[in-house]
Amino acid sequence: MPDQLLQMQGISKRFPGVLALDRVDFTLRRGQIHGLMGENGAGKSTLVKTLTGVHRRDAGTVLLDGQPIDPRSPKQAEALGISTVYQEVNLIPHLSVAENICLGREPTRFGRICWRAVSQRAEAAISRLDLHIDVSKELSSCSIAIQQMVAIARALDIDARLLILDEPTSSLDENESQELFGVMRKLRDQGLGIIFITHFLDQVYEVSDHITVLRDGRLVGEYETASLQRVDLVSRMIGKDFSQIEAARHAPPTASATTAPHKEKFVQVSALTRQGSIAPIDITIARGETVGLAGLLGSGRTETARLLFGIDKPDSGSITVDGQLVSISSPRQAIRLGFAFTPENRKVEGIIPHLSVRENIILAIQANKGIWAALSRAEQLRIADSFITALGIKTPSPEQAVANLSGGNQQKVLLARWLANHPRLFILDEPTRGIDVGAKAEIEKLIASLCAEGMAILFISSELEEVVRDCQRVVVLRDRAKVGEFTGDQISEHAIMQTIARHEHEA
Amino acid sequence: MKLDYAQSRQPFALPGWLAKLIWPVAALALLLAFNLFFTKQFFKLEIRDGHFYGCLIDILNRGSQVMLLSLGMTLVLATGGVDLSVGAVMAIAGAVAAEMINVPAMPFPLVIAAALAISVLAGVWNGLLVGVFRIQPIVATLVLMVAGRGVAQLITGGQYTTFTDSRLVFLGNGHFLGLPFPVTIVAVMFAITAILTRKTALGLFVESVGDNETASHYAGISSRTVKFMAYVFAGFCAGLAGIVAAANIKCADSNHIGLFLELDAILAVVVGGTALAGGRFYLFGSIVGALLIQTLTTTMYMRDVSPEVAPVPKAIVIILVCLIQSPAFHQQVRKLFTRKATA
Hints:
- Chain A contains 18 helices and 22 strands.
- Chain A is of the alpha/beta class.
- Chain A folds into 3 domains: 4-244, P-loop containing nucleotide triphosphate hydrolases (Rossmann fold, 3-Layer(aba) Sandwich), CATH 3.40.50; 264-338 and 423-507, 3-Layer(aba) Sandwich (Rossmann fold); 353-421, no CATH class.
- In chain A, the strands form 5 sheets. Chain A has a 6-stranded mixed β-sheet with strand order 6-9-10-3-11-12, with helices on both faces. A 6-stranded mixed β-sheet of chain A has the order 18-19-20-15-21-22, with helices on both faces.
- Chain A is globular, with a radius of gyration of 25 Å.
- The relative contact order of chain A is 0.11.
- By secondary structure, chain B is mainly alpha-helical.
- Chain B has a single domain, classed as ABC transporter involved in vitamin B12 uptake, BtuC (Orthogonal Bundle), CATH 1.10.3470.
- Chain B contains 15 helices and 6 strands.
- Chain B has helices at residues 2-7, 16-38, 55-78, 86-101, 108-132, 137-156, 166-173, 181-198, 202-211, 213-218, 223-249, 261-271, 283-302, 311-325, 327-342; strands spanning 45-48, 51-54, 161-162, 175-176, 179-180, 251-252.
- In chain B, the strands form 3 sheets. A two-stranded antiparallel ribbon of chain B has the order 1-2. In chain B, strands 3-6 form a two-stranded antiparallel sheet. Chain B has a two-stranded antiparallel sheet with strand order 4-5.
- Chain B is globular and about 75 Å long.
- Mean pLDDT of chain B is 89; it is low at 1-12.
- Chains A and B meet through helix 11, helix 12 and helix 13 of A and helix 9, helix 10 and helix 11 of B.
């Protein structure tokens, strides 16, 4: 089979507690751009990492050009002709373009680096991409797009047979992406196999020939791009059978029926923008209303939450709270307005791992009170205990380090931290990700009761089912822009999914 | 695989602070036991004029400067930073105290206040560079470490300014309750630090920022303020240590006061269980660490180890204590034993 460049069969990989890949097959042909799609936790990056030698597979076979391979390190993978370009440019900014391309494999003469050969090789690699750059230029003086190209040139310099592009366009603008696609097509025509990972639906349709969809560590299927409807792709990625939803469309939605259209507006976001993060967006949230942000990974959900909570600063646009124009330039200011935020990445941005459950719970109240007005130990314990009971946090003691708790219980500790502070707007970014079903249900119940008590909630979830069940208004995002909004009875998985999948030019 | 993971947890659970303290305390006890049996006169105590004298008292007295420094250093390390300038700040404080005390009719409290004020100012400088301008702590505090002794020389006009004022000399050489006065200063500062960190939210914020700065930021904690305060406090502690050091030798010796003591202080804190990476801190552990280092030094001296080679055994003991505390080292040792057991 001369046509097949890479065959992966029955790849499994287990990490402590999770089966990250479950007997996945993947085939790449020469001269093919193959999109690898899936939501968070689908196993895209694990699959790629077993290929590049970062992880070792537990089971399965990999054939490259018909030869079985088992790379144990990225270096071995490179030697086999497998090259990877990551999302963030992994180069040395203060070295020249040529030095970056040849870094770690400089041509030498008599044990010394032969600089002329370095620049010749770099020029050869760059010209393969039809680029014209002065290779002696310092890398940091080039645009991000050019840096990305240099990374690709570097990858090609090792006589790559297989190029893996892991979200290469996430920091590129439209024109720069087009430039990159031009290069990708050119390489494809030269016979290279390219694996393209992206969150942008438009891009995968624009440049890829085939699409493989993974979900929850399993292969969903491999499709020819031209014959795969967008809405089918979305439904396969999120694991919803479109026809089933279609059938259930006319069934009355459950929670959303309680919409009260005349609730007073609490937070109003108008035309909030940040370059490279989110196009101008409008959101209105009333007291006692749960507003959902729906969209695929990378669609701008988290970016919107970060702007609202003052973590990132907007370039333009305005936020009003209770009709008052406010400026939010730090989480502290957001907290003073009564905002609370549980981040998507709980471990990195949420918990203070080595501090106790008690300390994690009282952290936000104490931060609000300042350094000098310390809560007494007894008061801290009372607050911690009351939330441990109320939210059913499973911990041997309030003095247990939070790092030792399960994901669901860590999430509850974070919820407790903010609830203790009596927020008026609670921004929940993927509050149910990576936690067990029981805890999920409890958290959803909690959201409903908080909402009933009059709290405004901004709910971000990649599980459409949850969004539909829990929200009275849903804002749909795609490719970092708002593309639709539904309220009350209009909310359905079907409607949201169609909005996500709709091509701009079709609309 | 899963089984291994479960086994790697501690089979019996001590409270965190106790588990951290147990190693430095054990090392100190072991060293004292060694001296009890092998070093003549180590435990001999004399009483002259109602004051205690002897090796143990000497350790307390000589260790007082590092103990004072280690209190401030504990907070700085806990924020994930480091303060290399404290030794030089000691020299500045000593110089200011010596110059001021020689001014006729200068009120004594003002002398102390001025010496402490300039140390706090040094702390403010470090705090601004690290907390506000986000310069890496090593680089930021290196500035004063290098320049500080020059500042001290400027203050004294390049002279060894000596003094005889009995009140100032008392701070370094006096006795209180039979013990050298610096011991009292350490005890009071320890109490103040403990209250400052545990009776306010400062301790919590320092640990929180050191453990996860991003999450602390999102929770509304100003890491800028917290870091700033830690460096200011370290400056204050260095000032006190500098006054004690100058008073002890009755002279502002800008070249030697506090020389390399910042390194001893960092060692004391790390030996005491506070991680260089930041997070949980152990004030009492730092004091034990400082005592361990001083006991080692005194042991070398008592056993006639020449001063040139004395750092070598010291280094060995400290490496051992640090290894014992390292989880990675535990794992390696456990692996070694399980392999032997299965073989």
